[in-house]
Amino acid sequence: MNKTIITGASGFLGSHIIDILLEKGILAHALLRQSSSLSNLPDKCRISRVDFMNPDSMAEDFDGADLVIHAAGATSAASQEEFDRANALVTKNLLSARDRYARNALFIYISSQAASGPAGNGPVTDYGRSKLLGEFAVRDTENWVIVRPPAIFGSRDPASTPVMKLALKGLFVSPWMNRGGFCLVYVRDLARLIADLPDHPDTKGRTLEPSYGRLFSWKDFHEILEKAAGRRILHLRIPPVLIHTAGFMSEALASLTGRTPFFCRDKCRELLASEWTVEDGLTHSLTGWEPAVPVEEAMKNTLEWVRSNS
Fold first, then answer.
1. Is the separation of the CB atoms in 125 and 87 below 8 Å?
2. Residue 120's domain is classified under what CATH number?
3. pLDDT at 256 over 80
């Protein structure tokens, strides 16, 4: 690779992609918003503060690039319009910059299983709809790969760290559901796949949904946590009606404070969805990829990171 561009490099998944690229001897060029933190970035990483709303302002950054990994995005927002701006419009602008200044560069778009929705029937959240709009923009161009991760876990995840901390203290809270399940992928395994995609030209124009290849129930997840933590953990199951109530109250409080709600009814719909599906093996057939770290070991690694960073 002559020049690799990555967005979202300071985030959860993006920082792990940077790590894998460095292990492969690839020095990445991170494009960051003015407000992005540098805490997760290694010293060996070129950084540019950019305006994602202005494609022409990124001309110098894209010049000579042969790979663009778009891992940036918003997972929480106050409205559908804010989600669309962060996840769809930014994607369109990056594609515009790629097409103008690095036309031959492979564009890897990190979408989400939320874009396909439960059972592949379409998104059920504003977030999922915005990621799907981003996919539409990608498919209107050439030389691309879309990756739809399911729930990602691992070190440096600000969303799941509070859950892991609570589990280490002996409590795990989940919805009270007795049907279906959800997919998981370990962040290091996912980052490795993304970094290796340029080596697999057959993935161009394809949409990949990597995971552990099975569905996990909340009971399964609780048992994995117990094994990884090496202790008993109380499993508190919350009825869906109370989860919806919590989402409504969080939104009401956010409207009074002017802040974006971290937990809202939109997230409730995704959290309570039960008909998620597993990919039919396309990722493995095109790349040979499969999870290298067993889920129990991956969870143990995650909890050890949480312990050492608490």
1. no
2. 3.40.50.720
3. no
Q: What is the pTM of this model?
A: 0.93
Helix or strand holding residue 266 (H, E): helix 265-272
Structure tokens at 138: 């990608």
Q: Does a structural domain hold residue 196?
A: yes
Reference 111, options 73, 158, 82, 165; nearest CA is 73
Token pair belonging to 116: 């396909």
State mean pLDDT over 164-168: 97
Is 144 contained in some domain?
A: yes
* pLDDT tens per residue, range 60-84: 999 999 999 999 999 888 889 999 9
Q: Which residues pair with 185 in a beta bridge?
A: 152
Number of domains in the chain: 1
Question: Residue 61's domain spans which residues?
Answer: 4-153+183-212+277-292
- Of 76, 83, 141, 73, the C-alpha closest to 107 is 141
Supply 90's token pair. 């930014």
* 117 Rama class: left (phi>0) / alpha (psi -120 to 50) / beta: left
The closest of 4, 309, 5 to 158, measured between CA atoms, is: 309
